[in-house]
Amino acid sequence: MNQAAAPADAIDWARIREDFPVLRREVHGKPLVYLDSANTGQKPAQVIEAVDDFFRHHNANVSRAVHALGTEATDAYEGARRKLAKFLNVRGDELVLCSGTTFAINLVAYSWALPRLQPGDAIVVTRMEHHANIVPWQLVAERTGATIKVAEIDERGDLDLEQLYGLLTPEVKLLAVAHVSNVLGTVNPVRDICRQARKRGIVTVVDGSQAAPHRPLDVAAIGCDFYAITGHKMAGPTGTGALWARREHLDAMPPFLGGGEMIKQVRFEGTVFNDAPHKFEAGTPNIAGFIGLGAACDYLSAIGMDNIEAREQALLEYATGRLDATEGVRIFGRAREKAAVISFLVEGAHAHDLATLLDLEGVAVRSGHHCAHPLMQHFGVPATCRASFAFYNTFEEVDAFIAAIAKVRQLLL
Ligand code: PLP
């Protein structure tokens, strides 16, 4: 596939969809309509084959063996780091490969924040964060005596920037913010936010889990200190992800986990650690997974992230319009800039019942709190349903989704 130069409307999206074997299956006798890509993305054959090829032809551990397979595995693993670095527009030696965003943020919490924060210091998080960008900071706050302050959202689901900037007082040492909300789809102006924080000497952690799969990214231009991504949402295998950090932070941070791979020399008198990023990559990594993630970066780049964004925006607009025209549907989140995520409820139906009934129609949506309890609290609901779209979805699938909602409403009335 080489569609890089084509604009979104000139791309053969039906052809691209064929790359995803799982999308050909049926559930409950109906064609699968997969609207849960914010949870995990589906994998194209190119990624599946890259993983398969590694195990069939190259399987060996990395950075240990000098034999041919060992060298091939190391080259492929480090090649994947370079591909991901290029995809994010960062330096490979500033990219720590890890199991995903949860690990990446915990690495910052334990290795950067824990040794530095003190009683009287504060951490700012936003109302729309995933638990992965809340709980590690609570653990740090508990152990250091720091406090947590919360940036709130307005009625559209945008961050209240005036209130946020008002929170950035001298005791604040760290600001943790999602690039894109996994529940509301809100795209936060992270460049401006990071500039404001930096002016005040505040370190920024951006959770890019829902941004990296869906829009062109230039992490270097955002101006943050740390940026976390998770591979399984961007067409890559589960158990892959990365933390980008400024070199000065990586050099100053102590290792998070100790073991093999992260050392230069071990003596009982003391250990000399490897240089970053390897200093933070103790133990055997998910080699095949990262090779798959490298293939995913190639795959997404060949389509073009701006094309992917345009396609998903068109699906979002169409689905929002159709949901708005459906009686009894309430949408949560109408941000000015929004990714293709729609949280919603249908009058008279609990989110889990709704998702279960939609599943019987072949439509897979997520229901629950979406790992965002504080946001559910804000809206006064225990749970919502969430339809999240990717470039491999079709307008016909949106129609099937709306038809399934109409059928479920009939059942429930
Ligand atoms: N942050 C956001 C915004 C997410 O949507 C998710 C996953 O749902 C995560 C963090 C956690 O990612 P992972 O479980 O892959 O570490």
UniProtKB/TrEMBL annotation:
Superkingdom of the organism of origin: Bacteria
A Pfam family it matches: Aminotran_5
Domain Aminotransferase class V, chain residue ranges per copy: 33-401
InterPro entries: Aminotrans_V_dom, Aminotrans_V_PyrdxlP_BS, Cys_dSase_SufS, PyrdxlP-dep_Trfase, PyrdxlP-dep_Trfase_major, PyrdxlP-dep_Trfase_small
EC annotation from Swiss-Prot or TrEMBL: 2.8.1.7
Chemical reaction(s) catalysed: (sulfur carrier)-H + L-cysteine = (sulfur carrier)-SH + L-alanine
Cross-referenced CDD domains: SufS_like
Keyword Acyltransferase (UniProt): no
Cofactor: pyridoxal 5'-phosphate
Molecular function terms, GO-annotated: cysteine desulfurase activity
Group of enzyme by EC: transferase
Task performed by this protein: Catalyzes the removal of elemental sulfur and selenium atoms from L-cysteine, L-cystine, L-selenocysteine, and L-selenocystine to produce L-alanine.
Full protein name: Cysteine desulfurase
Origin species: Lysobacter zhanggongensis
